[in-house]
Amino acid sequence: MIHFEHPYLLYLLVLIPLFIVIYIVVKRNQNKRLAAFADKQMFARLTPDVSYSKAVFKFSLILAGLTFLIIAFANPQIGSKMVKGERAGADVAIALDISNSMLAEDIQPNRLARAKKTISSLISKLNNDRIAIIIFAGKSYTQLPLTSDYGAAKLFLESINTDMIEAQGTAIGDAIEKSMQTFGYGNDDIPWQKNKSRTIIIISDGENHEDDAIAMAEKARSEGIVVNTIGMGLSTGVPIPQYSRGVNVGYKKDRDGNPVTTKLNEAMLADIANAGGGVYLRAGNINTDLDEIVKEIEKLDKQNFGETMFSEYESKYQYPLVVALILLLVELFVFERRNKIINTTTIFGTKENTKDIK
Predict the structure, then answer these.
(1) Consecutive H or E run containing 242
(2) N or C: which end of the chain has fewer CB within 10 A?
(3) Residue (of 244, 227, 252) closest to 168 by Cα position
(4) Helix or strand or coil: residue 357?
(5) pLDDT score of 355
(6) Is 214 left (phi over 0), alpha (psi -120 to 50) or beta?
(7) Would you state the pLDDT for residue 212?
(8) Is the previous residue joined to 109 through a cis bond, with omega within 30 degrees of 0?
(9) Which residues are within 8 A (CB) of 22 and not within 5 positions of it... i.e. 6 or more apart?
(10) What pLDDT is attached to residue 97?
(11) Reduced to 3 states, what is the DSSP secondary structure of residue 205?
(12) DSSP 44
C-alpha cells in the first residue's frame, strides 16, 4: 500500500486544473484578438512554421511534469514489512498556565496562543517520549494523562482556553505537584520508583501568587524529576483583555477602576528552573528556540515502554522525480516552430524546394 510522508503537499495538485482553465481562457482571448486582426487563412500564410498542436503538447508536458514533481515532493512510500522493536523514552509533563493574564497581547497573538504553538513545536521534536498535559491557574488539572499519541496530544492542546478553570491565580507549585502525580508519585497502588527519566516543563508568565513554587521544584528534583520553565510575555506591564463570548469587551480593572496590568516575572521562573535542576527559556514573537530544552530531555535516562509493532516504509520518490525530469527535458526540445537546424538539408545534404509567396 502506498503511503505519503508529506500528504499535505498533494493539495498542490488542485493547481493543475486551475492552470488548464487559465491556459484555455488566455488562448481564447488571443484567438479573439487575432480574429479581429485577420482571418485564419491569412495567418496560416504569414506564420507557416507555427504549430499550434505543438504548443498544446508542450503545455501538457509541463503540467504532467509538474504533477509528478508534486508527487515526488510528497514522497510516496511503500510499507515493506512489520517490525517488532522496543520503545524507550522519557516521561514529559507539560504544565500550561491558563490564567487570565495569559491573554495579554504583549507577544502575538497573545501569551496563551503563543504557548500552545510552542508546545506543539515541542511535541513535534519528541521521539518515543510519553507526554502529559496539565493545565493550571488557581488550581491544577490533568488535561491529558501520559501518552505516546502525539496526534491526540495536539488535539487536546487546541481545545485549551482560559475558561476551563474558574479559580483564578497562578499556582505553579500546585502544577508541579500535579505533574508529579501524572508520573505516579503519591499513588498508593503503585510503588514509587525514583529515576532520571522524568521532566516537568512549566509554561507561564511567572506571576505566582498562590504557593511556594520553588520549594515544590526542589522536592521534584529530590525525587529525580527535572523542572524546566518557559516564560511567556515581556517584562513591561501590559493590560489584561477581557472577553465575552469570544469578543473583546475591554480590559480588566481593579476595584478603583484602574487597569490591571501583567508582566513576565523572569526572576521567579529562573529560580524555579534552578531549584528544579532544569533550564529557563524566554519565548518571543518569533518561534521559540526549544533546542536547549530538547537537549535536556535527550539527556534523561530512557525507560523501556515495552515492545511495539511498526511498519518500515521505503521511499519511492525517485521514480516520479525521474519521470518529471524526463517530461520537462522533453518539453525543452519540443519547438513550436520548424527546427531550422535539424532539417532535410543538414541530414541528406539536399535543398528543400521553396516557392515564393506572391
Answers:
(1) strand 241-244
(2) C
(3) 252
(4) coil
(5) 41
(6) alpha
(7) 87
(8) yes
(9) none
(10) 96
(11) coil
(12) H
- Classified as helix, coil or strand, 127 is coil
Q: How far apart are CA 74 and CA 12, in angstroms?
A: 10
pLDDT at 287: 65
Which domains does the chain carry?
2-75+317-348 (no CATH), 85-309 (3.40.50.410)
The Cα–Cα gap between 321 and 315 comes to: 12
- The residue length of the chain stands at 358
Residue with cell 474558574: 166
Q: What are phi and psi of 294, to 5 degrees?
A: -60, -40
Task: Let me know: does 180 contact 220? Beta carbons within 8 Å.
Answer: yes
Interhelix angle 15-37/52-73, rounded to 10 degrees, is 160
Q: Pick from 121, 150, 145, 122: which is nearest to 132 by CA?
A: 145
Tell how far CA 269 is from the center of its chain: 27
Q: What is residue 28's predicted lDDT score, i.e. its pLDDT?
A: 86
Query: What nine digits make up the cell of 283?
Result: 519565548
Contact 334, 60 (CB under 8 A): no
**DSSP annotation string for 72-88:** HHT-EEEEEEEEEEEEE
Structure confidence at residue 260 (pLDDT) = 86
Euclidean distance between CA atoms 290 and 94, whole angstroms: 14
Give dist(CA 236, CA 218) in Å, integer.
29
Residue ranges of the chain whose pLDDT lies below 70: 34-35, 37-51, 79-87, 208-210, 285-288, 305-312, 336-358
Check residue 196 and report its DSSP letter.
S
